[in-house]
Amino acid sequence: MSEDAPANTLGIRRIMFAVDIDDVIARLRTHGAELVGEAVQYKDVHRLCCIRRP
How far is residue 35's CA from residue 19's CA, in Å, rounded to a whole number? Predict the structure, then answer.
């Protein structure tokens, strides 16, 4: 699949996992990852964050 394919092209373009975000952040930091801003609550449903890697 081409990187320039339209958003409605068949195939998996994104994948998400349900995780303990605090645990994942802690483990990624041991590998040099850096949290961009903070993990924020989105409504009463999700916690979201952005992580920058080295």
Answer: 16
Q: State the pTM of this model.
A: 0.61
**30, 22 contact by CB (below 8 A):** no
Q: What is the pLDDT of residues 1-54, one digit of tens each?
A: 456 777 778 877 667 788 999 999 999 999 999 999 999 998 988 888 888 886
Please check whether residue 7 is in contact with residue 14, taking contact to mean a CB–CB distance below 8 angstroms. no
Q: How far apart are CA 10 and CA 15, in angstroms?
A: 14
Q: 5, 11, 19: which is closest to 49 by C-alpha?
A: 19
**Helix residue spans in 4-53 (DSSP H):** 21-29
| Spatial separation of the C-alpha atoms in residues 51 and 35, rounded to whole Å | 5
